[in-house]
UniProtKB/TrEMBL annotation:
SMART domains linked: WD40
Pfam families: WD40
Highest taxon of the lineage: Eukaryota
Name this protein carries in UniProt: Uncharacterized protein
InterPro entries per record: WD40/YVTN_repeat-like_dom_sf (IPR015943), WD40_repeat_dom_sf (IPR036322), WD40_rpt (IPR001680)
Amino acid sequence: MTTAERHSSSDVEPTCMGSGKLIHTFALTSEALTVRLAPEKDYCAIGQCDGCLLLLPMPNKRNKCVRLELRADEGLPCTDLAFIPRRSEFRRLISVYASGFIRIWQFSETGKVSLWKNWREIEAKPDGEGDDDGVTKYNQILCLGLSPDNKRFVTGGSDTIVRVYDILGHGTGRLLIPSIRTDNTVAQNFHTNRVTSVVYHPRGVKDVAFAHIFFSASWDGTVQGWDDRTCGSLWQCAGTNVAGSDGLYVDSIRNLLISGSFKHDKVLSQVWQARTFGDPENRNSMINIDKPLSTIWQDANSPPVQIYVVRATPDNEFLIFGGTNCNMIKLIQSATMRQLALVTNLPVGVYSADTCVDVTDKKRFLVSFTNGKKVYLLLVDPRHPNFNEAP
């Protein structure tokens, strides 16, 4: 059974610098691929490479540990997670898998859990090609995005097609495939390679005009903007490669898209305008935007890092980056690019992270991040530049 444990001096510890310090470690039996913190800040959900899904209580919480096992013949990774904010006595969590499964779970603080909905995405053939061997193939789902009103979610994966699902529906998602799709069109309004990240515009929480707007990133080198009521993307910009489901972030205050850079050794991240409406007169000029508005450069004095994670703190004041090669988690101030905190000396890369406000001090925040068979909790206090040295 997976355990949650405090740091012990006998373990080789990561190195913390600046305003953050590690306060807790979740030790696992398999490598963690994705992590999410519950809106109630009482559970940490972890998706593992062996497909198991864990709900582990946060420090000082008395909730029961929940381990959601899969069938014996299913062992592909759990690739992304999303908590559905509670609106009744039920608490729900969406999980997606490289096996093509989508599952919506219901759970409680007492450890009671049930599978509310379960279905599997069949690999789509947008160009009308059939299977030569007649065998049904399933989509390798890589990412998940929950709408601001918590009524829908979108998925992306290896078959390049974005799907939108109604949470209260019956699992028959709508494929967002343009009615005319040719790879020779000048202005493509679809992806041509695996979709690695999808995220809704946060402004949709308060502004209904943004409720259906979301963005996607793909291994085809583009970021695209969508309305989940239409089949083709509204616009796209090219020149970035987003590798992980946490590699695309929307700054709702400045209306910017921030993409993690996987292939550029000198680039930490790229910043794009989060265009939301595809005006016909501007469509051609909007689609071919190859240059970002700005670039966040890596530290020239450090080894290059391949970014999997771009996140922001709850107040949007700081950005969180994580990645591989130079395995690290870094926090910088959005306005000044000043480094706030840094965690290095990690044995493997960081593939996922999440953040929330510290319930005991609203000026501080927590960052959870994956690292091999561990998930760390980093407590950050921007008021103290040497918080890592505090007792």
